[in-house]
Write a structure and sequence with these properties.
By secondary structure, this protein is α/β, with parallel strands linked by helices. It has helices spanning about 50-60, 85-90, 95-100, 105-115, 125-135, 155-165, 185-200, 210-215, 235-240, 245-250, 290-295, 340; strands at about 1-15, 25-35, 40-45, 65-70, 75, 90, 170-175, 205-210, 220-225, 230-235, 300-305, 310. The chain is built from 12 helices and 12 strands. Bound molecules: adenosine-5'-triphosphate (ATP) and magnesium ion.
Length: about 350
């Protein structure tokens, strides 16, 4: 339904405070392709600074890609961000406090978009009550006259989702929608997104740091590292058989109640500066399997299994890349285990 194809974006930031300071280029996102389908959740997972928000903002057409394109129903999305596009593709942000104006009651927050997009059907109160019911804020009259500060974080995020739904979008881009919420209420908001997918057939992008919640919610997971796509697959395939060493690292560092101790991501090095990204594969300085070619040449995406791709030289078939020959693949890549390697 909505596709970002080869999306690329750089930002230019001043080095130092002087007015004459040179501007340096931040390579935020490079050639990232994501495809969202009706009735499916796609998770975009990666560490802070990986470029997840930048991808979501390009899909929402809040910012323009330097290269690549956004396609809606297979056709290039209209130039700019016309109201018709904004109505179909809505974004939800991390901080529901910041996204709701504190001086207005919930009624106001929901009424405005309904009116702007002519969605009230002649009865504003009924339309507002329906919206609140859709996000399980019931009975609606308990919420309409409240101010945002009178609600819990989870309830506020539900109001923000109701507001996004008010214009009857087909696509929701949810940027870390639960990461500022208390752990105890995260699940409720994730289940609401799952409900919207199943009942209303929305296409949803779920942006998160947390690969465990991505597995819980998403049908497909796309993993980004330092601005690039490193792996994409159906959730179960990606989390059961992670093919890229970075995905394996993310999974090794995901909290697991069955493990006494969870290794920390930070103990395994940090993502590179995007001002001067490493040559070749951007993950090679942190990768336990880095080979010579990884330092020299960025890997393309290789098919690991059906619908499962990984941008890693470990998955090149002999012959696909002249530099890799003879036994470089002695370990079945899907079963590489970072823990074992470390020991
Ligand atoms: N408007 C901007 N101006 C300059 N640099 C930017 C801008 N927006 C993003 N960046 C840079 O682009 C890179 C990617 O940022 P982005 O916000 O997309 O990452 P993210 O994966 O969403 O991170 P987080 O998990 O912390 O939200 C970062 O290095 C960031 O500093
Ligand atoms: Mg972000």
């Amino acid at each position: 339904m909505l596709e970002g194809r080869d999306l690329t974006k750089s930002f230019y930031v001043k080095q130092g405070r002087s007015p004459l300071a040179r501007k340096a280029r931040v390579h935020a996102v490079e050639a990232v392709t994501v495809r969202l389908e009706a009735g499916k959740v796609t998770a975009l997972v990666g560490e802070s600074g990986a470029g997840k928000t930048t991808v979501a903002r390009m899909l929402a057409k809040i910012i323009k890609p330097d290269a690549g394109e956004v396609l809606l129903d297979g056709k290039p999305a209209p130039a700019g961000r016309p109201r018709s596009y904004a109505a179909q593709v809505q974004m939800i942000f991390q901080d529901p406090f910041a996204s709701l104006n504190p001086v207005h009651r919930i009624r106001h927050h929901l009424m405005r978009p309904l009116q702007i997009h002519h969605m009230t059907g002649g009865n504003v109160d009924k339309a507002i009550a329906e919206l609140l019911n859709r996000v399980a804020l019931k009975p609606a009259e308990n919420f309409t006259d409240k101010f945002p500060y009178e609600l819990s974080g989870g309830q506020r995020q539900r109001v923000a989702i109701a507001r996004a739904l008010s214009v009857r979008p087909r696509v929701l881009l949810a940027d870390e929608p639960v990461s500022m919420l208390d752990v105890s209420i995260r699940l409720g908001v994730l289940n609401l997104l799952a409900d919207l997918r199943d009942r209303e057939h929305l296409a949803i992008l779920y942006v998160t740091h947390d690969i465990a919640s991505a597995r819980y919610l998403a049908d497909t997971i796309v993993v980004m590292y330092a601005g690039q796509l490193v792996e994409a697959a159906p959730s179960v395939s990606l989390t059961d058989h992670p093919a890229h060493p970075y995905t394996q690292l993310l999974l090794a560092a995901a909290p697991d109640p069955d493990r006494a101790e969870t290794p920390k991501l930070a103990d395994r090095g940090a993502p590179p500066s995007l001002l001067a990204p490493p040559s070749g594969c951007r993950f090679h300085p942190r990768c336990p399997y880095a080979m010579d070619i990884c330092k020299r040449q960025a890997p393309p995406s290789f098919a690991v299994s059906s619908g499962h791709i990984a941008a890693c030289w470990l998955h090149a078939q002999p012959g696909e890349q002249g530099a890799i020959k003879n036994g470089a693949f002695s370990t079945p890549a899907g079963q590489l285990d970072i823990e074992k390697q470390k020991r």
